[in-house]
Design a protein that fits this description.
It contains 19 helices and 30 strands. The protein has 625 residues and is an alpha/beta fold. It has a domain of 128 residues: GMP Synthetase, Chain A, domain 3 (2-Layer Sandwich). The C terminus is likely disordered. The chain binds 5'-O-[(S)-ethoxy(hydroxy)phosphoryl]adenosine (WTA).
């Protein structure tokens, strides 16, 4: 922990010479098979960090901890939804990863191959990710809440040849048929040669001969040795699909060395992690927070990371607090949506448990409103745990804006200051920094090691999405302002991405699913502010001739989106309307719809037809968004 003066000194030096700053971090932070000599090659918007060095993410997360006392330290503490418990030491996790990697190698997979991981929150998810990393296989974890169709498009885009799954997952006492979903997806993905199945719940599944392999058989027959393969720094460690402003999800590509250097550095600056800490990040490994702050960050540091399989309120609303008390968790990292749902459930649930082990609390994924912040601070932190409100994105790889505890005073609702080496600013439309207090677009003016390296197979979209508004400057898609203390306040997205419970969703993706339904002619999806989820998804739809707007059809359409994308994307509401407000050029005026769902109460049954004649008049002006 640093004091403010020391910390400001570090930040100043880092900004004065970011390359030297990151090079120094990289030299001490990672094990290098061959050291790098060049730090950064920057041909905007393409960055290469430490490019002539070779390293391996799995080696850095496991092998290097085995030579000292950490070999018997708990690497992973797993709590199952049904109260099962598994604790894997570094040595034990390493042994399992080596076995599984040897099995993958035995099947002929290696550097540059792509694997889709569709797994529940179980230790095998970590084993599979690390085993891929060990061999240089690029992994892409698909959140277990995604549908077969969403899975198929990702397998397809990635050209994956290997899939790793479980028979099923558990969610609130129900069974999520992962293998079945994968089967459905694979019926249209002939490129996948093998799918490896871990038996987790014992659910009944079909195994297809030759293609489908049992995890247990594979590791039983695998060789005992499987050294980590040195890969170039820029070798992609993983691709993670996220929602963009068009219907097609984008495959965000992350590197090996730059990514690892910065997730590790931020573990230290933000979480002030100590060797005797028990650290728990409640994210799912299907999202970037799970990659960076359940797996790669904590393990690179040799920390103890907790992984919980189930839902926060299952079987009772105090499950999280029970886990904190059980494992004496010191650092706890969760989302504002979770916090808001705890507030709703009542203070008696946390108050029943001994939370005195907590030292530091974190928040991620959405703006945290001051009242949620205050509740988190007093009821969970007992007013003695600093709160780190961490701003970052799938694309940034690691936390970029956050207080560093001890050094930076917090303010409820602000992610405070850029971390060392990060050149954040707020621009107006013309690309000029706005005066403090004024709202604008959050941008990043210098490349950073854990930045995305591109969108898989689509350099043009990468350029267009992030670098076209301000040449050479990264556009985050978020609005923000900075106060007179230099603190950043991130307000939310300015593009067609909405954030429901911290899950990023593309309105275009939802719309394109809607219009595939036979009853739907046109659709427009917007976010409505929601006390619990941050935003809720509302979809307006016009129907094709012959279709009748009934509550049953409204419900069918909600379920349709859930089935096509995944349950978490199921709209809160589908409103069937007789027309959508449009500009003269025919563009749907989403802003108007957003206002409508935000400010005006539309009386009556929301599943019946609405009259847009007023809006239609408004739309006479040729307004573009
Ligand atoms: C939002 C999650 C305010 C933001 C790590 C960003 C936040 C998007 C915060 C990225 C925060 C994330 N305060 N907003 N502390 N953290 N966001 O890719 O809009 O799932 O652009 O990454 O979440 O979401 P993603």
């Amino acid at each position: 922990m640093m004091d403010r003066t020391t910390y400001d000194g570090v930040r100043k030096a880092a900004l004065a010479d970011p390359e030297e700053f990151w090079a120094a971090r990289a030299r001490v932070g990672l094990h290098w098979f061959s050291p790098f000599r060049t730090t950064l090659e920057w041909q905007a918007p393409f960055a290469r960090w430490f490019a002539d060095g070779t390293t391996n993410a799995c080696y850095n997360c496991l092998d290097r901890h085995l030579t000292g006392w950490r070999k018997n330290k708990a690497a992973l503490i797993w709590e199952g939804e049904e109260y099962q418990q598994r604790i894997l030491t570094y040595q034990e996790l390493h042994r399992r990863v080596v076995q599984f990697a040897a099995a993958l190698r035995g099947l002929g997979y290696g550097q540059g191959d792509r694997a889709i991981l569709y797994l529940p929150m179980i230790p095998e998810a970590a084993v599979a990710m690390l085993a891929c990393a060990r061999l240089g296989i690029i992994h892409s974890v698909v959140f277990a809440g995604f549908s077969a169709e969403a899975l198929r498009t990702r397998i397809d885009d990635l050209g994956a040849t290997l899939a790793i799954t479980a028979d099923a997952g558990r969610r609130r006492g129900r069974i999520v048929p992962l293998k079945k979903n994968l089967d459905d997806a694979l019926s249209e993905c002939p490129g996948v040669r093998h799918s490896i199945v871990y038996r987790h719940t014992g659910a009944e599944i079909e195994m297809r001969e030759r293609r489908d392999l049992e995890w247990a058989d594979l590791v039983a027959g695998a060789e005992a040795e499987c050294p980590a393969v040195p890969v170039p720094s820029e070798h992609p460690l993983f691709v993670l699909y996220t929602s963009g402003t068009t219907g097609k999800p984008k495959g965000v590509v992350h590197s090996t060395a730059g990514y690892l250097v910065q997730v590790q550095a931020t573990m230290e600056w933000v979480f002030d992690l100590r060797d005797d800490d028990t650290y728990w990040c409640t994210a799912d490994i299907g999202w970037v927070t799970g990659h960076s702050y359940i797996i790669y960050g904590p393990l690179a540091m040799g920390a103890t990371t907790v992984m919980y399989e189930g839902a926060p309120d299952w079987p009772r609303p105090d499950r999280f607090w029970e886990i904190i008390a059980k494992y004496r968790v010191n650092v706890f990292y969760t989302s504002p949506t979770a916090i808001r749902s705890f507030i709703r459930q009542g203070d008696e649930h946390p108050n029943r448990h001994d939370l005195s082990s907590l030292r530091l609390l974190g928040s991620v994924g959405e703006p945290i409103n001051p009242s949620a912040w205050n509740w988190y601070n007093t009821v969970i932190g007992k007013s003695r745990c600093p709160i780190v409100d961490t701003w970052w994105q799938t694309e940034t790889g690691s936390i970029l804006l956050s207080p560093s505890p001890g050094a930076v005073e917090t303010k409820p609702g602000s992610a405070t200051l850029p971390l060392p080496g990060i050149d954040a600013a707020i621009f107006n439309l013309k690309g000029e920094p706005v005066p403090d207090g004024q709202q604008g677009y959050l941008v990043l003016r210098k490349p950073w090691p854990s930045m995305l390296r591109g969108l898989y197979g689509d350099p043009e979209r990468y350029r267009e999405n992030y670098w076209s508004r301000y040449p050479g400057v990264y556009f985050t898609g978020d609005a923000a302002h900075r106060d007179s203390d230099g603190y950043f306040w991130v307000l939310g997205r300015v593009d067609d991405v909405i954030n429901v419970s911290g899950h990023r969703m593309s309105t275009m993706e939802v719309e394109s699913v809607m219009v595939r339904h036979p009853a739907v002619a046109e659709a427009a999806a917007v976010g409505r502010p929601d006390e619990l989820k941050g935003q809720a998804l509302v979809v307006f739809a016009t129907l094709k001739g012959g279709a009748t707007p009934t509550p049953a059809l409204g419900e069918e359409l909600r379920q349709w989106v859930g089935q096509e994308i995944g349950g978490f994307a199921r709209p809160e509401e589908v409103r069937m309307v007789d027309g959508l407000p449009k500009t003269r050029s025919g563009k749907i005026m989403r802003r108007l719809l957003r206002e409508l769902v935000t400010n005006r109460h539309v009386a009556g049954d929301t599943t019946t037809l609405e009259d847009f004649s007023v809006l239609a008049k408004l739309s006479a002006s040729d307004e573009d968004e």
